[in-house]
Design goal:
Blueprint lengths: L6 E3 L5 H7 L6 E6 L4 H17 L4 E6 L4 H6 L7 E6 L2 E7 L4 H9 L5 H14 L3 H14 L4 H13 L3 H9 L3 H4 L2 H15 L6 H10 L4 H13 L3 H14 L7 H13 L5 H12 L1
Parallel strand pairs: 1-3, 2-3
Antiparallel strand pairs: 2-4, 4-5
Protein name: Thioredoxin
InterPro entries: Thioredoxin, Thioredoxin-like_sf, Thioredoxin_domain, TPR-like_helical_dom_sf, TPR_rpt
Keywords: Disulfide bond, Electron transport, Redox-active center, Transport
């Protein structure tokens, strides 16, 4: 039994209080282990050291799978060590095996609030108030103080985009860790930046519509007009134009219409219209 206030042995009796309820206040890292498991024995002192280093920013909850078989079964634990992170009463992330300390720190830092995150929140509030330049200055201060916080870079990308610099915003996104780039909100931002970049030197909607009236096969006009519709959130019109372009010339621009549709799906995320749009696109491919 550990004497640390940051490390708790979990049983069926205290699980609800010290994992579910506690995780509503602070992240709880649950380590499923067993005495016979050599990797578990390697991992345990690393987790204990991190619990002390983080000084209560997370709680380490240890579940002995031999003694607490019901809890292990409840979470479908088939191999150990398995480590799950709980927030707000739910498991939100996990890893398996005895990872190196540096990787576990990265894992934790994705979920544990940092002091610089408060500056990020302030900057995004300034952006909503139309004070983009002040928001940018605040984030630069935060980045100097905490250069390892990727949330700062993501906020910088949002602000650069809002200030009309999609190229700089895209460069920032490309520098984010791969697991962060895969998050839906980051993919949605990358999708919006894709269309904004297309429009940097593009003709106006009026000019593009006139071009299409003169030549209904003007692929570039269809493509750029679709980008305008995405920017104006007229998504159905954008999809229709890109599908028309695929139907007329699927290979135009090395498959530019299909690429744009996929970017648009990223923008829309889990919108229920996406499966319908995707089905229409696939019908033109196969």
């Amino acid at each position: 039994m550990s004497n640390s206030p940051y490390i708790i042995e979990i049983t069926e009796d205290n699980y609800q209080a010290f994992v579910i309820e506690q995780s509503r206040q602070v992240p709880v890292l649950v380590d499923f282990w067993a005495s016979w498991c050599q990797p578990c024995q390697m991992l345990m002192p690393v987790l204990a050291r991190l619990a002390e280093d983080y000084q209560g920013k997370f709680i380490l909850a240890k579940i002995n799978t031999e003694e607490q078989q019901t809890l292990a079964s409840q979470f479908g634990i088939r191999s150990i060590p398995t480590v799950k992170l709980f927030k707000n009463g739910e498991p939100v992330d996990e890893f398996a095996g005895a990872l190196p300390e540096a990787e576990i720190r990265k894992f934790l830092d994705r979920h544990i609030p940092r002091e610089s995150d408060a500056l990020v929140d302030q900057a995004l509030q300034l952006l909503q108030q139309g004070e983009g330049k002040s928001a940018l200055e605040l984030l630069e201060q935060a980045k100097t103080a905490d250069p390892a916080n990727d949330n700062i870079n993501l906020a910088l990308a949002r602000i650069q985009a809002a200030l009309g610099d999609p190229v700089s915003a895209e460069k920032i996104l490309l520098q984010l860790p791969a697991d962060m780039r895969d998050k839906p909100e980051v993919q949605a931002l990358a999708g919006r930046l894709f269309f904004e970049s297309l429009l940097m030197d593009a003709p106006s909607q009026t000019e593009l519509m006139q071009r299409l009236e003169a030549d209904g096969h003007d692929a570039e006009a269809m493509y750029l007009l679709a980008a305008h519709h995405v920017k104006d959130q007229n998504y159905e019109q954008a999809v229709d134009l890109l599908l028309q372009l695929m139907k007329k010339d699927r290979s135009w621009g090395d498959g530019a219409a299909r690429t744009a549709l996929l970017k648009l799906f990223d923008v829309l995320g889990d919108d229920p219209v996406v499966p319908r749009y995707r089905s229409k696109m696939m019908s033109l491919i196969y």
